[in-house]
Specification:
This protein is α/β, with parallel strands linked by helices. The protein contains 15 helices and eleven strands.
């Protein structure tokens, strides 16, 4: 597990506080200034020093998704939104957010909704505290050139990313709705993102489930075409949540509130300043800018920035999981949630 502290946002907030104090010259509480014109120079000097001292940031350990799904969080930290809420964020990289939470290596994490449902349903001391910036599956079934429809995949090799994952759910659902099952194809685990794209371009598979910007990249490079968009097939399957461990929730409710506010501030700013965010995106993800433009345009409708958790969507998600054998029972939703901390607009 790799840990990285982001301290630049704290420095930015401290610098901003100094600038505002120098420009404003008074208190910001809305009350009557306590210093009178007759105050001594020493007292004025002391008050000025106190006013300009930055507040100490509170530390929180957060594991956002790796890859592009967690990139806005890093962008928001650099923009200073988390420091504005008084937080110093220690970013933790993990392949297993549930394990990191239960072992108390992190305080809050992004997670696939289904992983939280199953883990919490079986007794893991964690709860969903908010939806992520999007909750519908931003997944695409793409195929090599020459394959024109999902039906054409019969007898072909199909990549399902990680078996047992949400990507697997979408792959099987797309096949099923076109009269196929995973038994009608050679069904393979081929990884995600770059690995999934390489499996297609190298000929390891004839089609694969994948995220953007690789779906758009396949179109631009002429290596494949999109056969299906995931959210057209499972519009109420819930894919992403922020989750915390129970001890942290009990002891630090105010930190959760601050984190969620900063998280959605970051998302709203990125969506509202898309060209600026695209520049940041391309600095961190080395891919054809034209593919990024297509990807953002295609997925703009999914970028809802709604922290609420749709209870009906959680029920639908569990039923799909049960039908495919990914869950052995439906869990009580009330035991999975603690939504007291989501930002109030």
């Amino acid at each position: 597990m790799i840990k990285k502290k982001w301290l630049g946002s704290g420095i930015l907030a401290a610098s901003l506080a100094l600038v505002l104090t120098a420009c404003g010259g008074g208190n910001t509480s809305g009350g009557t200034p306590s210093a009178s014109p007759a105050a001594s120079p020493a007292a004025s000097e002391s008050a000025s020093a106190t006013d300009s001292a930055p507040a100490e940031l509170q530390k929180i350990r957060y594991a956002p998704f790796n890859g592009v799904s967690g990139l806005v969080v890093r962008y928001g930290i650099e923009k200073g939104f988390f420091a504005e809420e008084g937080l110093e964020v220690e970013l933790v990289s993990t392949q297993n957010p549930i394990e990191a939470l239960t072992s108390k290596e992190v305080d809050v994490a992004d997670s696939a909704t289904t992983n939280v449902i199953v883990a919490a349903g079986k007794g893991a001391p964690i709860k969903i505290v908010s939806s992520m910036f999007r909750t519908k599956g931003p997944f695409y079934l793409i195929a090599r050139t020459g394959i024109e429809s999902v039906e054409d995949l019969k007898g072909k090799k199909v990549g399902a990313a990680v078996l047992g994952s949400g990507l697997d759910v979408y792959t099987q659902t797309i096949l099923n709705k076109h009269g196929l099952s995973k038994k009608d194809v050679t069904y393979l685990a081929t990884g995600v993102n770059e690995a999934a794209y390489a499996s297609l371009t190298s000929g390891q598979v004839d089609a694969t489930i994948i995220h953007e910007p690789f779906a758009s990249l396949a179109e631009i490079e002429g290596t494949g075409k999109i056969l299906a968009k995931g959210w057209d097939y499972l519009p109420t399957f819930h894919t992403g949540v922020l989750v915390s461990q129970n001890d942290f929730i009990d002891k630090n409710p105010e930190l959760l509130e601050k984190l969620l506010r900063a998280y959605f501030k970051s998302q709203e700013y990125a969506k509202s300043n898309l060209e600026e965010y695209k520049t940041y995106f391309l600095e961190n993800v080395k891919v054809d800018p034209a593919a990024v433009d297509k990807a953002f345009e295609r997925e703009f409708e999914l970028w809802e920035n709604n922290p609420d958790v749709d209870l009906n969507a959680l029920r639908d998600t569990q039923q799909v999981q049960l039908d495919l054998g990914f869950q052995d029972q439906i869990y009580d939703i009330d035991d999975l949630l603690d939504l007291r901390f989501i930002p109030k607009k």
